[in-house]
Q: What sequence folds into this?
């Protein structure tokens, strides 16, 4: 059994991340906790709503109820990225070339490294935002689909339409697919066409008993792991048409205990699976072999993140019990 370094915080943990191998835990009340030669805290927001890891700078981006977008460095120092008083920053995303995206209401904003601001309006409230892995392009999830905007070019966005409420969005690591989480216990995907924007064929990934609130791409982008069922549902994306006509893997099935969070290993085809009772398993995609990483705790797992070597896993829960699993321990 791997060793677990526990940390008991007050309230819901929104997100976790490793910055320079230091584990960070972000609480909903707006305080950032880090385990850096002891437990240290930074009061960041009056209510934390969104969080994203910026790989390009090894920093953390956060959005709050106070209308601020903040950047947190590995040593805990903070800087203001943007501020919109009296607005709730419900979405933040980190992009290539140090670009930052954030959203409130029906508008998305992208701040480039030189301070230039770009603004993109939608007809409905922005529910999710993601950068394409290459090139400054963003996908914005909203009611009835996704809008694709090129950040540096004028012109009309490409609309990927599908009826219903889309609550989150992600690009595949190779940029060929866009996948959304939906209000109706399903995922929906589009295969992007370099010329036309998107092919007519859609990818419907249905059958979940609960809403999917966590997605994670495998290291090489061949698999997409998802929560929202009593197992991690892992869709195959190796072929040119993604998961169309193919059955997903079901890993870590535990009766009626729901999977709430998934996090794929940074190098191996392994997924960490967090459950509503606080248990965490690791499962290998090749043969479904499982390893127990943490026994059940006080609350549902709400966030997980691997460090760069994949030897440590940070986790947080809805009840504030969190910590770091050391696989080498």
A:
């Amino acid at each position: 059994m791997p060793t677990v370094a526990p940390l008991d915080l007050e309230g819901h943990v929104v997100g976790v991340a490793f910055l320079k191998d230091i584990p960070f835990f972000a609480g909903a009340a707006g305080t950032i906790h880090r385990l850096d030669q002891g437990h240290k805290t930074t009061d960041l927001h009056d209510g934390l709503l969104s969080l994203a890891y910026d790989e390009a700078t090894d920093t953390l981006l956060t959005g709050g109820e106070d209308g601020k977008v903040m950047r947190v460095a590995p040593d805990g120092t903070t800087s203001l990225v943007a501020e919109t008083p009296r607005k709730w920053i419900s979405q933040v995303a980190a992009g290539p070339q140090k670009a930052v995206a954030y959203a409130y209401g029906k508008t998305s904003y992208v701040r480039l490294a030189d301070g230039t601001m770009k603004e993109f309006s939608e007809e409905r409230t922005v529910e999710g935002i993601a950068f394409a892995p290459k090139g400054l392009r963003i996908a914005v999830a909203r009611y009835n689909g996704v809008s694709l905007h090129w950040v540096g070019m004028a012109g009309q966005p490409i609309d990927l339409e599908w009826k219903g409420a889309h609550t989150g969005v992600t690009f595949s690591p190779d940029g060929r697919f866009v996948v959304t989480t939906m209000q109706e216990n399903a995922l929906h995907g589009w295969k992007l066409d370099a010329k036309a924007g998107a092919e007519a064929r859609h990818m419907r990934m249905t059958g979940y008993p609960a809403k999917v609130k966590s997605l994670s791409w495998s290291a090489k982008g061949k698999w997409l792991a998802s929560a929202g069922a009593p197992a991690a549902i892992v869709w195959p994306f190796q072929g040119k048409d993604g998961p169309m006509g193919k059955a997903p893997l079901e890993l870590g099935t535990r009766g009626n205990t729901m999977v709430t969070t998934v996090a794929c290993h940074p190098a191996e085809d392994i997924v960490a699976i967090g459950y509503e009772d606080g248990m965490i398993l690791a499962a290998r995609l090749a043969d479904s072999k499982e390893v127990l990483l943490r026994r059940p705790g006080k609350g549902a797992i709400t966030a997980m993140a691997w460090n760069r070597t994949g030897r440590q896993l940070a986790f947080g829960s809805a009840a504030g019990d969190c910590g770091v699993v050391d696989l080498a321990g």
In short: The chain is about 0% helix and 55% strand. The chain has two domains: 1-39+207-329, 90-206. The first strand starts at residue 3 and ends at 8.
